[in-house]
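For consistency, the fold was encoded as tokens, as this record shows:
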Amino acid sequence: MQRWELTVSATNLFFTMEKKIRKRGLRRKQKMRLLGTVKEPVCRWEVFKRDNWTCYICKRKVRNISNHPRMATLDHVIPISKGGSHTYSNIKTCCAECNCKKADK
């Protein structure tokens, strides 16, 4: 009997976590709407080509290899949480190392 109770509680925990994750996604979209954030479809490869595969912070070449410190990532110059937009003019190429250091600044 105890084994069944543990299974049920684990299942309930899983569904509770899944609901929280879905709610968090809705909150992010709602927050963007409330802030009036402009969002346009952005092709990451076009941004990488535009910036010549160079990190705009450290000025070194980035790579197209996953799990590499110099991995190419997109960075919002003005973070969305600070009122920035998700447009080509606010997105630049950045290496993963610099992007982690910059965080939400």
